[in-house]
Amino acid sequence: MTTSNHEQREIHGISRSVRELLQGMKYSIDYYQREYKWQTKQVEELLDDLTGRFLEDHDDSNPREAVAGYGHYFLGSIVVSNKSGQKFLIDGQQRLTTLTLLLIYLYNLQREREDRVDVSDMIFSVKFGKKSFNLDVPERQAVMEALFSNLDFDPHGQPESVRNIYARYRDIEARFPEDIKDETLPYFVDWLIENVHLVEITAYNDEDAYTIFETMNDRGLSLSPTDMLKGYLLANITDETKRTAAAQTWKQIQQELAESSADEMADFFKAWLRSQYAQSIRERKKHAKPQDFDRLGTEFHRWVRERREDMGLKKSEDFYQFIERNMRFYARWYKRLRQAAENYTPGLEDLFHLAQLGFTLQYPVLLAALRPQDDEETAFKKICIVAAFIENLLARRIWNWRSISYNTMQYAMFLVMKDVRDKMPHELAETLAERLREEESFSDNERFSMHKMNHYMIHRLLARMTDFVERESGLPSRYTEYVGNGKVRYEVEHIWADHFEQHQDEFNHPADFAEYRNRIGGLLLLPKSFNASYGDLPYEEKREHYLKQNLLAQSLHPKCYERNPGFLKFIDRSGLPFQPCDHFKKADLDKRQQLYIQIAEQTWSIKRLFAIVQQAN
Asked: What burial class does residue 207 get, using C-beta atoms within 10 Å of its C-beta: 0-12 exposed, 13-18 middle, 19+ buried?
């Protein structure tokens, strides 16, 4: 049966739930627009929006069927070209790819649950015994299969989309809210697949599909929140000369921030306005309404208009100074913070450390400590103190198996943000040190170990600890090399090879051996090539090769303690119980575990906050 020309030119727009959009469906992506580019920030925002909207209606006392009456959430539209019965995504692959990754995560999270909601048919389909995923792109098949089946996957050397898919799945793992993982989980999965909707716009030829796409993305006809805020602020400056000067300042700042990304100006406003003006935040409970912090993340232009007097914007001169003094000051520091997060910068190393942990909530907290009247030295110290505090806090939480996800940390960071406003460096150090004293310490978890979900974080902690030992021993920093910015790729490696039979004199069961083997005291950060060559050898044979590696690995060998004055002085100064090991037995691993705990306590010492106050720039 042939299709008429009229039918070929039809365009359909239908609202579909996630289930309707993905169940048993298959979408292809043309070769010229295949890259998946979402970053951590977009995943965090999506998870926060979805879980926040769900919790507005959820009550644990509700029966499952009550989810049908929960509010709906619109996730935007996708544009599809239907060619000969095959669906090609013209617009929307970022959202559909991320939705699929979220469904894979939820599938894995529910594996052992009796009340699980089966979402597998929204992830893949099987035809003639062959599995294919709903986004049918051959180069992504291996990574999607590995994530779905909980298998190891090495993203290095893979295409950009594959690397991003792997990284964004790990973001979802790290950032999915803890308060939805318990008995609430099946409610959330039901709500996600039935009450979250997208509009599927289908054309039956590429020409129409791309016309729709271009029309929907025409930026010339719509103003962004940044544009609307600019118009509002400038309109309230009555002096024409000052208005012109403020407009020029705005343009200059926008150009400088755009060098990082197209969204950087909006991200700056969210961070700056939250840092100085947010007094409230939405509670994560039923019927909770967005408050200052939330609205400044989505509609800062409206919030400023409504709260202008609270912000001190009453007369023309106030609006002028808001741009010419305040905006210029905070934009300069925001740009500096963002650059230090991307490039290891002496004096601002902790900003790079935070970025390596995948944390994104630091910017409003860091800016909150600053005041436009701060001189360079004062502002710099404030930034260093707050950054050191945040990294210290995250390290403690990771060590004690506590989440550092966006949803988990958002409220805590909001409270810190309010606490650090208008404080001088010594007050900051006192306030933040007291907060750290209330947290669990590293010695509170003497069995800290690596498991499938924290491998990445263990890598980052070991990189910091190894770098700390080396720098304190007078060696140059190699942190960037350890986290992957050099030619050599480093991996977390076990001191014990995975051979239970060699340790049966000390362990009765393979599970007990595996638990001990994964403890952080039994781990090192070594080049990937090292493990390929020596990883399977007994400890006594590997130890000789450790002498060519980093100082933490060398410290297992007695020769490390000969003619090594910098290291020996560090041991004497720090009191750390370093000692070589002839045979790495269970008792040796116990001692090494205690050593690592003490290294962590010194790497992330509370005293460092006060040392920053005293140091000269």
From this structure: exposed
Helix (H) or strand (E) holding 87: strand 86-91
CA 260 to chain CA centroid, Å, is: 18
Distance CA 169, CA 40 (A): 10
Length of the chain, in residues: 617
When pLDDT is cut at 50, 70 and 90, the band that residue 128 belongs to is low
What letter would DSSP give residue 289? P
Q: What is the chain's mean pLDDT, rounded?
A: 90
Give the span between the Cα atoms of 329 and 97, in whole angstroms. 39
8 Å CB contact between 236 and 313: yes
User: What is the β-pairing status of strands 73-83 and 11-17?
Assistant: unpaired
pLDDT of residue 20: 92
Distance CA 119, CA 100 (A): 10
| Beta carbons within 10 angstroms of residue 130's beta carbon | 7
For the stretch 293-297, contacts whose Cβ atoms lie closer than 8 Å and that sit 24 or more positions apart, written own/partner, are 293/410, 293/414, 294/52, 296/270, 297/270
Q: What are phi and psi of 127, to 5 degrees?
A: -135, 125
Among residues 591, 524, 576, 582, the alpha carbon closest in space to that of 558 is found at 582
Burial class (CB in 10 A: 0-12, 13-18, 19+), 483: buried
Stretch 166-182: mean pLDDT, rounded?
Answer: 88
Tell me the pLDDT band of 133, cut-offs 50, 70 and 90: confident
What single letter denotes the amino acid at residue 523? L
Tokens 């599909």 correspond to: 209
pTM for the structure as a whole: 0.83
Contact 383, 366 (CB under 8 A): yes
| Residue 130 parent element (H or E) | strand 130-133
DSSP labels for 29-69? --GGG------HHHHHHHHHHHHHHHHHH--TTS-GGGGGG
Q: Which residues, in sequence order, are CB contacts of 211 under 8 Å at separation 6+?
A: none
DSSP, collapsed to helix, strand or coil, labels residue 197 as strand
Q: What are the tokens at 141?
A: 């098949």
β-strand 86-91 against 27-28: which pairing, if any?
Answer: parallel
The rounded distance, in Å, linking the Cα atoms of 7 and 609 is: 69
Residue 402 in 3-state DSSP?
coil
Compute the C-alpha angle 99/103/109, nearest 5°: 145
> What are 255's two structure tokens?
């150009």
pLDDT digits (tens, 9 = 90+) for 31-40: 555 678 898 8
The residues, any chain, with a CB within 8 Å of residue 133's CB and separated by 6 or more, are 100, 123, 124, 140, 141, 144
The answer to whether the CB of 117 falls within 8 A of the CB of 193 is yes
Residues 84 and 98: their CA atoms lie apart, in Å, by 27
Per-residue pLDDT at 88 exceeds 90? no
With both helix axes pointing from N to C terminus, report the angle between 455-472 and 586-603 in degrees, rounded to the nearest 10. Answer: 70
Distance CA 148, CA 181 (A): 18
Closest CA to 436 of 424, 445, 428, 425: 428
